[in-house]
Each structure stands twice: as structure tokens, then as C-alpha cells.
Specification:
The strands form seven sheets. Strands 22, 23, 24, 25 and 26 form a five-stranded antiparallel β-sheet that branches. With about 375 residues, the chain is mainly β. The protein has helices at about 25-30, 110, 115-120, 310-315, 315-320, and strands spanning about 35-40, 50-55, 65, 75, 90-95, 100, 130-135, 140-145, 150-155, 165-170, 175-180, 185-195, 200, 205-210, 210-215, 225-230, 235-240, 245-250, 265, 280, 285, 290-295, 300-305, 325-330, 340, 345. It is built from five helices and 26 strands. Its main location: nucleus. It holds the Pfam family SBP56.
């Protein structure tokens, strides 16, 4: 039998991602009264749902936009009129339990140019979770996390579709809360991890929080990972005991307290000291570990360093000039443990159009932060 010469036939050349369609800001405004879109999820209906952080004037408004999954046209709001949350950011839904829970960052006009601690006292940042009925789209409950829960960003249900619990990372105080459905049928939250702030000098405040900016859960629901963008470390916790996470892995990747930087640590409750700058393949890492993505087998953790350009400029000006990077962390998925792959680095400072600030990571076909089972 003659094997066909498939290589002599014309082949489509892969030239990288290209823009298919843009949803204009004016469409979000006129059809939904929203702006500043953030998290997107594909729904079983075929539609795309995107959370928004505010309204066009820069104030906070936690609403949701529905897009047609085929045409990408703006369809409508997901929430009912008058039921948008004060602030928006991330969300995760569990259709088996008819629930969605959303989080809060802050008013875009307050955070766009950087972080001002006064804005927290003035009420421009959130500290609550919002519970929604997945079928009726009604807001059912607001769970106030208090001061330790200020700026709750990324939220993750356990992947097990039968589970009625998960975790949310709260940036400002470096805390992780476990949220869960109570015996009464409503929802509650409890603090299960706290990263202590470090007393410092040469920084904007006398104490520096870890600033938890991203969390994820392995597909087998055994490990929780999160990044401390300011302290510069990634942590791995065994969450087999859901209420008592146990630290089993940690690695430092830059951050604001490196040994040759302008910040001096005066007191560190965890006694880590000031770590050396991280250099991979001859490139000094600017910034700290930020967005995370885990391979489906749980053995490779990928991380980028850019959070948001206004905050990047404020806390890591070198990254604005040099671009962000992507690194790979090797994971011990049996006993726990993290180590840097010294042979892997994607340098976005070498982009053809100049340095870029790469942020989110996604696997084609689904990953640990997008897959939702019913």
C-alpha cells in the first residue's frame, strides 16, 4: 500500500493568535451599563459570561455580561436590574448546587493608577463575597469577610462537582478564606491561612503584606497554590484536611524584599530573611510571582509576573521597562514541594513591538482554573 505524500501538499502556516472580533466598550455601556470586564467563563447554554468591575464613570459595579457564543455579540446582563454588587472581579459557579459566588476588587477609578491605602478607608475597595442563584440569577446573600478579607480576588470551588466549598485569596491582609454551605443551606466563610506582614523600611508603608493575587486548586483537589506578589513567593498547601491547610512547598521568585533592593526587612515573623534576586537563563526576574496555571497532571506550575499596569508601574518600575516573564515550577505532586526549572523562561521583554506585560495563562482545551463540571 502506498503511503500518501501528505507533506507535499499545501499546509496552513500557524502564525500565532490573531484578533477575530472586538467587543467595543460602548456596547458594554449601552446594552449593560458596565465597564472594565475581567473574568470569562463559557456556559452550558453556549453563551460566554464575563464579570465586570465597574461602570463607565469609574465607580464600582459588579455586574455580568452575556455574549453570544457564536457571534460574540453582547446579549444582555446576566444579573437582574438593580442587583449588581458594589464591586466586581472574579466568579465561579457550581451548577450541580445551583450557585455562583463572585468576588470584589475595587472601584476602577481608585485602583487604575496604583494603590493608595487611603482609598481602603474611604470605601473604594471590597471585602465581601456575593452568592447568586444560578438558575434565576438572583443575588441571595452577601458574606462580609471583614478586615482580614479585604480585596478578595480569585475564587475557586473544589473541582469535585459534589463539593460545596472552596477557597478565596484576599490580597490586602494576605489571607485565604474557606467558604462553604452551612447545614441551614446558606453560605459562610472562615479564615484558614494567614501570611504575616513584614515590618520594613524604605517602602510605602511600615508593614508589607504578601499581597495574595492568585490562587488555584489542583484537579485532584489535593493541593492549593497561591502567589504572594510583594513578598515574592509561591506556596503549596496540602488541603486534604479542608479546614486546616498544611504548607508543603514554597519557592521565591523575585518580589519587593530581595537582598539588593531598596527595602530593608526589620522584622519577619516567618524568619525567611531577604532572598537573593532570581536569575533564570541570564535574565533577572523583575516583579514577583503573580498569575498561576497548573498542568493537568499537577506536575508543572507556570507563573507570570505582571498584575496590572498601574500597579506594576508603582511597585516594579523595572518590569515596565523590561517586560514581564513566564517561569515554570516543578511540583512534587505526591508529597509536596516546589523547585524552579532553571532551563525555562519566556521573556516578554523581547517582543517585536517592545516589552509586554503578560498576565493570564490558559491551556487550550481547558485547565485548572477554567474547567467546571456538572
Amino acid at each position: 500500500m502506498k503511503v500518501p505524500d501528505i507533506w507535499s501538499k499545501p499546509r496552513r502556516r500557524l502564525i500565532g493568535p490573531f484578533c477575530v472580533q472586538m467587543v467595543e466598550p460602548i456596547d458594554l455601556y449601552w446594552k449593560c451599563g458596565l465597564a472594565n470586564p475581567h473574568t470569562s467563563h463559557c456556559l452550558g447554554s453556549g453563551q460566554i459570561m464575563i464579570s465586570c468591575m465597574g461602570e463607565p464613570g469609574g465607580g464600582g459595579k459588579g455586574g455580568f455580561v452575556l455574549l453570544d457564543g457564536e457571534t460574540f455579540e453582547v446579549v444582555s446582563n446576566w444579573e437582574h436590574p438593580g442587583e449588581a454588587a458594589p464591586f466586581g472581579y472574579d466568579f465561579w459557579y457550581q451548577p450541580r448546587h445551583n450557585v455562583m459566588i463572585s468576588t470584589e476588587w475595587g472601584a476602577p477609578k481608585a485602583l487604575i493608577h496604583g494603590f493608595d491605602p487611603a482609598h481602603v478607608k474611604e470605601g473604594h475597595y471590597g471585602s465581601s463575597l456575593h452568592v447568586w442563584d444560578w438558575t434565576t440569577h438572583r443575588k441571595l446573600q452577601t458574606v462580609d469577610l471583614g478586615e482580614d478579607g479585604a480585596i478578595p480576588l480569585e475564587i475557586r470551588f473544589l473541582h469535585d462537582p459534589n463539593a460545596t466549598e472552596g477557597y478565596v485569596g484576599c490580597a490586602l491582609r494576605g489571607c485565604v478564606f474557606r467558604f462553604y454551605r452551612t447545614l441551614k443551606g446558606d453560605w459562610a466563610a472562615e479564615k484558614v491561612i494567614s501570611v504575616p506582614s513584614k515590618k520594613v523600611e524604605g517602602w510605602m508603608l511600615p508593614e508589607m503584606p504578601g499581597l495574595i493575587t492568585d490562587i488555584l486548586i489542583s484537579l485532584d483537589d489535593r493541593f492549593l497554590y497561591f502567589s504572594n506578589w510583594l513578598h515574592g513567593d509561591i506556596r503549596q498547601y496540602d488541603i486534604t484536611d479542608r479546614r486546616n491547610p498544611r504548607l508543603v512547598g514554597q519557592v521565591f521568585l523575585g518580589g519587593s524584599i530581595i537582598s539588593d533592593g531598596p527595602v530593608k526587612v526589620l522584622e519577619d515573623p516567618e524568619k525567611h530573611g531577604q532572598t537573593r534576586p532570581r536569575i533564570i537563563k541570564g535574565k533577572r526576574v523583575s516583579g514577583g510571582p503573580q498569575m498561576l496555571q497548573l498542568s493537568l497532571d499537577g506536575r508543572r506550575l507556570y507563573v507570570t509576573t505582571s498584575l496590572f499596569s498601574g500597579w506594576d508601574k508603582q511597585f516594579y518600575p523595572d518590569m515596565m521597562r523590561e517586560g514581564s516573564v513566564m517561569m515554570q515550577i516543578d511540583v512534587d505532586s505526591d508529597q509536596g514541594g516546589l523547585s524552579v526549572n532553571e532551563n525555562f523562561l519566556v521573556d516578554f521583554g523581547k517582543e517585536p513591538d517592545g516589552p509586554a506585560l503578560a498576565h493570564e495563562l490558559r491551556y487550550p482545551g481547558g485547565d485548572c482554573t477554567s474547567d467546571i463540571w456538572i
